[in-house]
Specification:
This protein has 331 residues and is of the alpha+beta class. The protein has 2 domains: 17-203, Fructose-1,6-Bisphosphatase, Chain A, domain 1; 214-329, D-Maltodextrin-Binding Protein, domain 2 (3-Layer(aba) Sandwich), CATH 3.40.190. It has helices at residues 3-9, 17-24, 34-54, 77-93, 155-158, 227-238, 249-259, 278-291, 322-328; strands at 64-68, 74-76, 96-101, 108-109, 117-125, 136-144, 167-173, 177-182, 187-193, 198-203, 214-216, 242-243, 262-265, 295-297, 317-320. It has an 8-stranded mixed sheet with strand order 4-3-5-6-7-8-9-10, sandwiched between helices. Strand 7 (167-173) and strand 8 (177-182) form a beta hairpin. Helix 3 packs antiparallel against helix 4 (77-93). It binds 2,5-anhydro-1,6-di-O-phosphono-D-glucitol (AHG) and manganese (II) ion (2 copies). 2,5-anhydro-1,6-di-O-phosphono-D-glucitol is lined by residues 73, 102, 122, 125-128, 218, 247-249, 275. The site of one manganese (II) ion has 4 residues, from strand 5.
Length: 331
């Protein structure tokens, strides 16, 4: 990294997100200002969703929506509300050609054929935790479309390997709300300051410890784990590592990013490809993990190298501290 580039990203902790995005715009590969606007749109929708989540116990928005999404999962009211918030924010901006969302079976074509960007999003991750006041999140990926501008969006625009992401991140709605993102030049985290209505840079150039002592996996499924995974978990227990599993991927990932650890959602006979979705859950967190010095694998290969074949496909997911992911996927 050159001196000028270093000084550009060497803003003091405390900058607000808008200012940080502006200062770093020239460091983006495509510095037209549209990507900056897009990240601002995501942060704005995140603030609105955060407000709704904070009022969830008072407003009539907890509980089931009464429908299933394309994966046959019960949609929660807030899943649907968050999906609408993000779609609207991205539609208004005009930078996005299409969205792939957990909550929609097909591509959402925003009828902006001249727009350059494609978004993949899990609008509300961990939504079954909402009613019990546990942290939830939003996960997003940004791609550049590959088909010519001006033409209708194609399947190849959305079925891109994770390594093609130009930016990715998540919003955590926890004890504080946080916006964490990368444009491929490290990871920065912003904490929401409600009295200002702003995300403020609080975690500059985040790095995940190479080795950690936390493992996060749903051990209720452990009778169905394969032998190498069982052996790895026994190793974790021999070393008296801590088991921590919230059941909200964003929250589990975020804790492990800060403290060092591994998150695993493995394949089991019931879910032979795991549970988590490649395009709008795993890819974004894999990019954040790698940019923070960590790693992400499906057990056999790097998540970011996988060529997706369909919108909602699932993959086993091992993500977190580099040495832990290596050790867990060795067998
Ligand atoms: P979503 O709410 O978007 O459907 O995702 C839920 C995911 C993820 O957040 C979490 O880590 C995982 O489901 C938990 O699954 P189990 O209950 O099977 O452990
Ligand atoms: Mn999810
Ligand atoms: Mn979701």
């Amino acid at each position: 990294m050159g001196k000028a580039e270093k000084s550009r990203i060497a803003l003091p902790v405390g900058s607000n997100l808008d200012r940080f995005i502006m200062k770093n715009q020239e460091a983006f590969k495509y510095a037209t200002g549209e990507l900056s606007q897009l990240i601002r749109d995501l942060a704005y929708a995140g603030k609105v969703v955060n407000r709704e989540i904070n009022r969830a116990g008072l407003a009539d928005i907890t509980g089931a929506y009464g429908a299933e999404n394309v994966q046959g999962e019960d949609q929660q009211n807030l899943d649907v509300a968050a999906d609408i918030r993000f779609t609207r924010a991205l539609q208004k901006g005009g930078e996005v050609a299409a969205i792939v969302s957990e909550e929609n079976a097909d591509i959402i074509d925003l009828n902006n054929p001249r727009a350059k960007y494609i978004i993949a999003i899990d609008p509300l991750d961990g939504s079954s935790n909402i009613d019990v006041n546990v942290s939830v999140g939003t996960i997003f990926s940004i791609y550049r479309r590959v088909s010519p501008l001006g033409s209708p969006v194609q399947m190849e625009d959305v079925l891109q390997a994770g390594k093609e992401q130009i930016a990715a991140g998540y919003i955590l709605y926890g004890s504080s709300a946080m916006f964490v993102y990368t444009t491929g030049k490290g990871v920065n985290g912003f904490t929401y300051e409600p009295s200002l209505g702003e995300f403020i840079l609080s975690h500059q150039n985040m790095k995940i410890p190479k080795e950690g002592n936390i493992f996060s996996i749903n051990e209720g499924l452990s009778n169905h784990f394969d032998e190498p995974l069982e052996a790895y978990l026994n190793l974790c227990k021999d070393r008296s590592y801590s088991a921590r599993y919230i059941g909200s991927l964003v929250a589990d990932f975020h804790r492990n990013l800060l403290k060092g650890g591994i998150y695993i959602y493995p394949r089991t006979p019931k879910v032979p490809n795991g549970k988590l979705r490649l395009i709008y859950e795993c890819n974004a967190l894999a990019m954040v993990a790698e940019q923070a010095g960590g790693s992400a694998s499906d057990g056999k290969q790097r998540i970011l190298d996988i060529q997706p074949k369909s919108l909602h496909e699932r993959v086993p997911f091992y993500v977190g501290s580099k040495r832990m992911v290596e050790e867990a996927t060795m067998g």
